[in-house]
């Protein structure tokens, strides 16, 4: 089941701003991806294209039914640096099977409940509980603190 992700919005006059209600996070060069578990794990781009078969390494995750994660799928190269060009080669290739990593930065549904109305810091807390990190799944919040 596809649920549209929240997208970026421009700041007033498209100028940088500083606010207590704003959180800045690292930008990863990857492909926006939703990981959804209604009946089984399915992967969707932000344009509602199901791409589950393209990333079989992302199917091994223990998510509660009714959970939807929002994030990016990345391919890392030298010293763990994300590489968008390599990610696009992997995305389009039927032969190139370099393994990818999903970096979760938000949660849209948790155990069947739409949580998009909650404040971001509460969704980040839910995200921490939604899955166990592995080689293929990491939380952007935890990764941000490591880097």
From TrEMBL:
Protein source organism: Paenibacillus pini JCM 16418
Molecular-function GO terms, alphabetical: ATP binding; DNA ligase (ATP) activity
PANTHER family documented for this protein: DNA LIGASE 1, DNA LIGASE 1/3 FAMILY MEMBER
Entry-linked InterPro entries: ATP-dep_DNA_ligase (IPR050191), DNA_ligase_ATP-dep_cent (IPR012310)
Family statement drawn from the similarity comment of this UniProt entry: Belongs to the ATP-dependent DNA ligase family.
Sorted UniProt keywords: Ligase
GO biological process: DNA recombination; DNA repair
Official protein name in the record: ATP-dependent DNA ligase
Domain named ATP-dependent DNA ligase family profile: residues: 93-147
Record bears the keyword Lipoprotein: no
One Pfam family from the record: DNA_ligase_A_M
Superkingdom of origin organism: Bacteria
Record carries keyword Membrane: no
């Amino acid at each position: 089941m596809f649920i549209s992700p929240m997208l970026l919005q421009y700041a007033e006059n498209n100028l940088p701003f500083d606010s207590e209600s704003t959180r800045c996070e690292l930008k990863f060069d990857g492909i926006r991806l939703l990981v959804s578990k209604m009946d089984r794990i399915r992967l969707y781009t932000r344009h509602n294209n199901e791409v589950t078969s393209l990333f079989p390494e992302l199917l091994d995750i223990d998510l509660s039914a009714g959970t939807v994660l929002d994030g990016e799928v990345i391919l890392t190269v030298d010293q763990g640096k994300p590489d968008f060009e390599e990610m696009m080669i992997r995305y389009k290739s039927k032969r190139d099977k370099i393994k990818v990593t999903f970096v979760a930065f938000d949660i849209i549904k948790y155990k069947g409940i739409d949580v998009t109305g909650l404040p971001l810091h509460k969704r980040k807390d839910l995200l921490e509980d939604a899955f166990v990190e592995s080689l293929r799944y990491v939380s952007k919040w935890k990764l941000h603190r490591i880097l």
